[in-house]
Structures are given as structure tokens and as C-alpha cells.
């Protein structure tokens, strides 16, 4: 595996410089959970990481997600797919971005920034072929939405940040009351352990501190310094996976 040391890790106030290594391959989007890594490239090819190698999966997606709810994705026509028994099956609905990080439920947003989630029973049992499934429509409008074990986070078209508390496997809509969080991000990801990371319009990466089941909104943001600018991030098992503007793949800690 090709690797290059980029920066040294030091704390500087509310900022932290990370140690990052570049690995082989090029991707436009990546998602990681419980040791699994999935991503797509500029040609919409789908890959998963096995050891130190990328393995291409059949099909074509523009966004892929992995989490407790399984492996899901959406294609360039906004059709939704779930990986079942090693093959992609189409699921009723249309989304531009989808997230499987919730506790056995999926969520996402459509082309009009409407926000949807699917409770545990439907998420787990759907295997494609249904004429319809019970998507829940949340209030508000977001361009990106991601869920973890006890909260969901999203950003809207103005890069404002919101958190939804009280989410559970059988009540994925949570409290239905958005809490705005100070700051501005263009994308945001919640990890399987509840950690929150995001990228702003300047392509800088931030981590939300103090996030817990008792305080899902956290306490503040830490700027994560690294060599170059970033377009997408995902966190799992102590490692932040970063896609650079040049579509390089970095693992940082």
C-alpha cells in the first residue's frame, strides 16, 4: 500500500493537525462503518476495501453508504438500491443522498431537499420488488442528512447546520423539532459511534466536540488541519477517511 506522511499531529487551541496517509485509488465519495469501507469514483464505479486493496462491485452509483442498516446507494437517476445477497436490488423511492448510519434505519434527501427516513422494520425487511415502502417525510429542507445511534445531523442549501434529537430505530423522525447548531458546513457525516465531522464551503474539515447521548448537539467545533483541501469525510474506528479535491484518498488520525 502506497503511503505518504503529510503532517504532524499537534494541538493548537481549537484546531488539530492530523497525521494523514494517502492510499491507492481515486474516489469522489466514501463511507465507512464498523470496519467496512465503500466508495464511488467519478465514473460512478463502486468499490469496497478488502485489506490493502480495492475490489470493484457490479453496478453504478453516485453515492454509497454503509452502516448498521446495511449497504445502500443512489444512482445518477436518483433510484435507490440496497445490497442484498451480493446484488443490488432497487427500492421504491427517489433520493439524491442516502445514509445507513442510523441504528438499523436509513435516511436521506431528495432532489428538492425533502428529508426522508425509513424505520427499522421496513429498512431490515425490504429486499426489493415492493411497489411501495413507508418512507417518513420530515419537516424542513436539507441538502445532506446523516444519522448515528442517537441523533441525526444535516445541512441546508445555505450551509446552516441542524441536529434532530430523539431518533430511535422505530421512530427515525425523532422529536421532529430541528435545533440549529452554530457554524456552517456544506456536508456532514455522523459515524456509527455518534461522532460528527463535516466539510465547509472552503473545503476545510471540522469535528464536533462533546457529542454524547446526553448532549447530542455537542459543545463546539474543532478545525482539523491537513495538507490540502477536502471534499468528503467519513469516520470509523478512530480513523478519519478523507477525499481530497483531487479525489485522493487519505486516512487520518
TrEMBL record:
Repressor recorded as keyword: no
Signal peptide coordinates: 1-17
UniProt KW keywords: Lectin, Signal
Entry keyword annotation includes Signal: yes
UniProt family annotation: Belongs to the tectonin family.
Record protein name field: Fish-egg lectin-like
Organism: Huso huso
Taxonomic classification: Eukaryota, Metazoa, Chordata, Craniata, Vertebrata
Amino acid at each position: 500500500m502506497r503511503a505518504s506522511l503529510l503532517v504532524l499531529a499537534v494541538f493548537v487551541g481549537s484546531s488539530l493537525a492530523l497525521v494523514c496517509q494517502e492510499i491507492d485509488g481515486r474516489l469522489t465519495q466514501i463511507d465507512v462503518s464498523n470496519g467496512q469501507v465503500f466508495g464511488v469514483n467519478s465514473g460512478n464505479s463502486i468499490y469496497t476495501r478488502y485489506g490493502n486493496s480495492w475490489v470493484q462491485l457490479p453496478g453504478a452509483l453516485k453515492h454509497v453508504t454503509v452502516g448498521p442498516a446495511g449497504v445502500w446507494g443512489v444512482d445518477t437517476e436518483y433510484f435507490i438500491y440496497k445490497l442484498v445477497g451480493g446484488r443490488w436490488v432497487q427500492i421504491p423511492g427517489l433520493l439524491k443522498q442516502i445514509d445507513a448510519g442510523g441504528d438499523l434505519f436509513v435516511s436521506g434527501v431528495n432532489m428538492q431537499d425533502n428529508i426522508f427516513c425509513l424505520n427499522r422494520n421496513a429498512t431490515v425487511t425490504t429486499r426489493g420488488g415492493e411497489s411501495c415502502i413507508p418512507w417518513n417525510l420530515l419537516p424542513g429542507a436539507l441538502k445532506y442528512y446523516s444519522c448515528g445511534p442517537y441523533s441525526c445531523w444535516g445541512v441546508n442549501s445555505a450551509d446552516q447546520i441542524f441536529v434532530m434529537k430523539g431518533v430511535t430505530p422505530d421512530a427515525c423522525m425523532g422529536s421532529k423539532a430541528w435545533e440549529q447548531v452554530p457554524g456552517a458546513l456544506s456536508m456532514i457525516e455522523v459515524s456509527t459511534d455518534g461522532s460528527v465531522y463535516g466539510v465547509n464551503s472552503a473545503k476545510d474539515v471540522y469535528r464536533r466536540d462533546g457529542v454524547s447521548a446526553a448532549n447530542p448537539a455537542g459543545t463546539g467545533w474543532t478545525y482539523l488541519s491537513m495538507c490540502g483541501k477536502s471534499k468528503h469525510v467519513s469516520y470509523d474506528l478512530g480513523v478519519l477517511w478523507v477525499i481530497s479535491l483531487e479525489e485522493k484518498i487519505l486516512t487520518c488520525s
